[in-house]
């Protein structure tokens, strides 16, 4: 005959499960509490000692002036490099009818895609003259505001047409 135990088994397992859950939570939190491991320093990985700053104010001022001149020189070189490799061609949109115009030296109009292609190729040839190949950037100016009301041009269709003409070259629109 089977005899039931005097004590219930659950009286033993419930506290045991609680303790196991607590130990598991501590195991999960250990990486967050322990912090970063200290890297081993070997003679190969040691950083070279940095130069200490001089205590003399005049020396510090001389170093500061030298660094300012260096920064100014680097900025000039950066700008010079940009102007050496970039040629900007400015065109305008006529406020009366929305046609694209440029001045060479007199007023010229771009009405068709063939005119635009001819103008682009001419400007690329002029920019690469002298042995230096420059990128040509076409800047298209919106009409200037005359009076209280802005011009109704270019229409959305005209603007899309201009974008289509210059899709293969760098260009941008600018409001004056």
What would you note in describing this structure?
This protein has 176 residues and is α/β, with parallel strands linked by helices. The protein has four helices and five strands; from the N terminus they run H-H-E-E-E-H-E-H-E. The chain has a five-stranded mixed β-sheet with strand order 3-2-1-4-5. It is elongated. The protein starts with 9 loop residues before the first helix and ends with a strand. The mean pLDDT is 79.
The whole-angstrom Rg is 37 Å
Globally, the shape reads: elongated
SS strand fraction: 15-25%
Helix content: 40-55%
Q: List low-pLDDT spans.
A: none
Number of helices: 4
Written as H for each helix and E for each strand, in order along the chain, the element string is: HHEEEHEHE
| Largest sheet properties | 5 strands, mixed
Give the strand order, joined by hyphens, for the main sheet. Answer: 3-2-1-4-5
Number of beta strands: 5
Layout: helices, strands, pairs:
Layout: H1 10-34, H2 57-85, E1 86-93, E2 100-104, E3 106-110, H3 113-127, E4 135-141, H4 156-165, E5 171-174
Parallel strand pairs: 1-4, 4-5
Antiparallel strand pairs: 1-2, 2-3
What descriptive keywords fit this protein?
16% strand; 176 residues; alpha/beta; elongated
